[in-house]
Amino acid sequence: MRKTFIILASVFTLLSVVFSVLPLGTIAVLPIAIALLLSFLALQKSDADSKKLPKILLLIAAICLVAVIGKQLLVKEEVAKDAQFEQTIEKSKEEDKKELEELENLEGDLE
């Protein structure tokens, strides 16, 4: 049973690391919670001399949890308005209007 807990804890800890690095928000908490639970169960099932790996997995999952919570609290996601792009769009619209007016004048001259 201990080996099963360690294998599953390793898999979920790896998923926790990947999810905490990717910009997925708080969805990363789910594999982190599972990794913490499985690591804790593996730690409980281990003998006194074989608790090193479950402790490492528990520590990595806890660090991932702190990273995800810190990223949610400290990083503010906001969309900045790009004034230069807006000016380019307006300029492009004005040029398009002028071209359409020129085309209308050419059509009027041809008739």
From TrEMBL:
<keyword id="KW-1133">Transmembrane helix</keyword>
<keyword id="KW-0812">Transmembrane</keyword>
<feature type="transmembrane region" description="Helical">
    <location>
        <begin position="26"/>
        <end position="44"/>
    </location>
</feature>
<feature type="transmembrane region" description="Helical">
    <location>
        <begin position="56"/>
        <end position="74"/>
    </location>
</feature>
<feature type="compositionally biased region" description="Acidic residues">
    <location>
        <begin position="101"/>
        <end position="111"/>
    </location>
</feature>
<keyword id="KW-0472">Membrane</keyword>
<feature type="region of interest" description="Disordered">
    <location>
        <begin position="92"/>
        <end position="111"/>
    </location>
</feature>
<protein>
    <recommendedName>
        <fullName>FUSC family protein</fullName>
    </recommendedName>
</protein>
